[in-house]
Amino acid sequence: MNPDLLNRLTPFRAEALSRAIPLQDVERWIATARPSGTLVTRGDGPVVGRFGGPLLLPADAPDPWFPLLATLDCAALPEEATGLALPADGRLLLFGFPEMTYYSGTAGEVVYIPEGTPVEERRTKYPCVYGEEGNEFDDGEALGIYEQFPQEELRLAPDVSLPHHFLDPSPEPGREDAALPGHPRSWDLAEVWEETHGDIVVDGPLHIGGYASHECTETDPVADAAEEAEQARRHRTEAAHGSVDATELPAPEEWTLLAQWDIGLTGREGSTLHWVIPRQDLAERRFDRAHVSFFWNP
Questions:
Q1: How confident is the model at residue 3 (pLDDT cuts 50, 70, 90)?
Q2: Where are the domains of the chain?
Q3: Is domain 3-295 classified as CATH 1.10.3720?
Q4: For residues 234 and 241, which has the higher predicted lDDT (pLDDT)?
């Protein structure tokens, strides 16, 4: 990782040591640091995409169910800034809506459009907000949330990320979760990060790569979302009597955070959307199995 990013963790190290956390535990925790691209709507960083804007899709692409949140320029998001092996070019479209889903279903999707692909502007009324055609419903709350979706350019601010979570789910039902393997002081270190990261990281609404977080982080939100994705797949398969792909998704530890939106809209204060994806799928430029999870602690 860029040494300048690691140097930002000096206040974290100092605070951890002041609490008598052994140096080897602190350094082992710092060794897990990841780069993260925080996207902001101000400053002088390079423009890497935008919130909102026109919906540009290939002619044969289906209408999306969820609203477009952001369009990202992959070429402007290098791996050293995000920790992710994103496509070298093209556009990544993030769709999602901050609402609870049924049977652990996804709250959004990801669409990748390679460079040079012909696109046209799609004017669609997202069913998630307006209801399906011929079966429209009047959901004033959903419309009120959607009308607050931001519409601004996004600029890149290189950032550093440490885990917010500190527990590893027990593989045995009924057993308590335990400290993260290899990190016996994980609870203390996560607490130090929670208290110091506000003076270390960039304040921005959209994060690409790094570690996931939300208001009640104990276990890894990425692993939790991966388990949701598998539950949703099993439900679809059972409902379709086996006609849906019956192959289990990769294990939770094989997934990564693609993007996180810290929402803060009126009516959704303190909520978060996480776009997660199996690492192998990302390497293969396969985004159809990406899963979007919604967390809200109203």
A1: confident
A2: 3-295
A3: no
A4: 234
